[in-house]
Amino acid sequence: MEAVAWRGLVYTIFILHFVLACQLILLQPLVSALDGKPGNAADLFERVSQSIKVKRYTEALDDLNTAIEADPTLSEAYLRRASVLRQLCRYEESERSYNKFLELKPGNSVAEKELSQLLQARSALETAQSLFHSGDFKKSLEYVDKIVLVFSPSCSKAKHLKVKLLIAERDYSGAISESGFILKEDENNLDALLLRGRAYYYLADHDVAVRHFQKGLRLDPEHGELKKTYFGLKNLLKKTKSAEDNVSKGKLRVAVEEFKAALAIDPNHIAHNVHLHLGLCKVLVRLGRGKDALTSCSEALDIDPELIEALVQRGEAKLLTEDWEGAVEDLKSAAEKSPQDMNIRESLMRAEKALKMSKRNDWYKILGISKTASMSEIKRAYKKLALQWHPDKNVENREEAEKKFQEIAAAYEVLSDENKRTRYDRGEDIEDMGMGGGGGGGGFNPFGGGGQQYTFTFEGGFPGGGFGGGFPGGYEFHF
Fold it and tell me: How confident is the model over 40-61, as pLDDT tens digits?
């Protein structure tokens, strides 16, 4: 029994020595400072430097932590660890490591400088986050770029915040580039996939955006923001297609509601909404809803002032609202931007003609009759108004009466002549058309000087009651 016990004791001692020997062999590079071989410490720190260079921060920290556990007095390991943690913006851990190093190496200028940078970076990150939430994106971006990422270049919080800020500032290309760097380091980074997808979304590159969202959802099917953004995009595309399909089917009123529903999904998606506003404007023009069309086209032009089609459609909308000068202005601008487009030039000519016609006297309106009035209706209206506004019956307001009487006579001069009336209805510019000359005041004035004479002939006489019981039929009077 004693021999067995003795062999067991010897075996146990052998195992313990073997384990100790293995530990010494494995930890030799990490505890080199203890055995007076600085070359082994140099190997450790060289390995740590290489890990940091290829952004294997976890491996570098593992090596440093193991070295510190083996030798809590290995000051250089604390400094290296503090620096890595600062770059990752793990500021509390980093600060503790700097302080431990300074306990071992009081007054070290390098550590004191880096600790100051840590404090600046931490404060800047907190300020940047606060500015982001308050909506001051530009200032927030300055803190991130000029302080945080200078002292903490591998800070994932700062990198993600920068991408969010670039999106908020509508620098979508910049956001795509920055999020691409994050994904190069970690292709499965869900936040980077979400943000990069959003940047493509706001550029209206929806296919690429969908691919980013789908990849993220494959990694985490329950990711709230990814689900919300992905299904929001799918709904937007569905509403847009429905609106366009209804336009092609001639269901214009249904299309109007679909366009409005699509626009309500994301008012900030201007790269897509500009086309929705334009589509809605075109439908409203076709429906003759000029005022509503004007609003939609203006929304499109607010987003893209160079959108020629929106200028043309707004010009058409202004024609519907009888804003002749505005229509000419928009269509002229569109024609200048696209001088070879004959359709635009035809629309411009039509608007210019409408503007010119709008400046003529409206003879139908002056006589208070419709454009389809018969000759007998024209004569009756003329006789009634001529009697009403005859200067001899309006002594107290003779000047106004003379002007009105002149307009009435000019209107009758044109509308009672079939040839002149036809030419007037076609919009022809006939300067000597009627007493009013087509412009009100440039033609013959029966009450002016110069000795000219105008003859009014009323077949059937004036209605009674005007001048002592009325004039007999066919009576002529002169001015």
Answer: 777 888 898 898 888 899 999 9
Beta bridge partners of 271: none
What's the confidence (pLDDT) of residue 7?
A: 54
**CA dist., res. 230 & res. 213, Å (int):** 6
d(CA 209, CA 297): 28
Which tokens hold the place of 10?
């010897």
According to CATH, the topology of domain 267-358 is: 1.25.40
Q: List, for residues 326-361, the tens digit of each pLDDT value.
A: 999 999 999 999 999 999 999 999 999 888 887 777
Query: Cβ atoms within 10 A of the Cβ of 126, count?
Result: 13
CATH number of 363-478: 1.10.287.110
Instruction: Sketch the domain layout of the chain as residue ranges.
Output: 267-358, 363-478
Whether the CB-CB separation of 415 and 378 falls below 8 Å is answered with yes
**Pairwise CA distance, residues 453 & 446, whole Å:** 7
Q: What is the pLDDT of residues 139-185, one digit of tens each?
A: 999 999 999 999 999 999 999 999 999 999 999 999 999 999 999 98
DSSP H helices in 54-189? 57-70, 75-87, 91-104, 109-134, 137-143, 149-151, 156-168, 172-185
Contact by Cβ (8 Å): 180, 196: yes
| Predicted local confidence at residue 457, as pLDDT | 46
At a CB cut-off of 8 Å and minimum separation 6, what does 254 contact? Answer: 246
SS3 state at 149: helix
Length of the chain: 479
148: which DSSP letter? I
How many other C-beta atoms are found inside a 10 Å radius of the C-beta of residue 138? Answer: 10
pLDDT at 218 over 90: yes
Whether the per-residue pLDDT at 21 is higher than 70: the answer is no
Q: Do domains 267-358 and 363-478 have the same CATH topology?
A: no
Rg (CA), the chain: 44
C-beta separation of 345 from 328 below 8 A: no
List C-alpha distances in Å: 97 to 87, 122, 123, 126, 276. Answer: 13, 15, 18, 21, 57
What's the predicted TM-score (pTM) here? 0.70
Distance, in Å, from the CA atom of 397 to the CA atom of 391, rounded to the nearest integer, reads 8
What is the residue whose two structure tokens read 């793990």?
A: 90
CA distances from 326 to 409, 451, 470, 479 (A): 33, 43, 49, 42
Q: Measured between alpha carbons, how far is 420 from 243 in angstroms, rounded to an integer?
A: 48
- Note the pLDDT tens digit of each residue in 396-425: 888 888 898 998 998 899 899 999 888 888
Instruction: Say whether pLDDT at 103 is over 90.
Output: yes
To which H or E segment does residue 124 belong? helix 109-134
